[in-house]
Amino acid sequence: MVASIHTRFVERAPGYRVVGTAATGATALAEIDRLAPDLVLLDVHLPDLSGIEVLRRLRGAGNDVGVGGAELAARAIEVGLVDELGLFVVPVLVGAGKAALPDGIRRELDLLDERRFGNGTVYLRYGFS
Questions:
Q1: Of residues 29 and 70, which shows the higher confidence score?
Q2: β-bridge partners, 123
């Protein structure tokens, strides 16, 4: 189900096309190796491997891995798979939202880049010490 949602999303995005889908972590790893895509949309909950394990294996194979989405990013930070963190701070209050960082994790951050936009949004890029 998540794969079909991701497929529909990508098909509507200009400049992107779907080159493959996978229902399991093992299939995802094989397809990523075979197709070498520019972007992978990955679910955290897969029947055979967690999304975190897929990330761990991709990174272990020397791939440059970017992680988006609060839940997956939080888990990747918890297990030490993240060495840089990018945050967009938007001056809008919308409900409770999701925390940008996982609870109970204490890591020193070094500010690497900061960009301000005319609408008040700020992009912050940090490296983990």
A1: 29
A2: 88, 115
Residues 66 and 87 both lie in one domain: no
Q: Which H helix or E strand runs over 6? A: helix 2-11
How far CA 21 is from CA of 2, 24, 106, in Å, comes to 10, 9, 36
Range of the domain at 72: 1-82
End-to-end CA distance of the chain: 38
Q: Taking residues 51-76, report their average pLDDT.
A: 84
Single-letter code of the amino acid located at 127: G
Q: What is the DSSP letter of 103?
A: T
**Does one domain contain both 117 and 98?**
yes
Mean pLDDT of the chain: 85
Under DSSP, the state recorded for 14 is T
Task: Average the pLDDT over each of 11-20, 32-41, 85-94, 104-113 and give the range with the smallest value.
Answer: 85-94
Helix (H) or strand (E) holding 114: strand 109-116
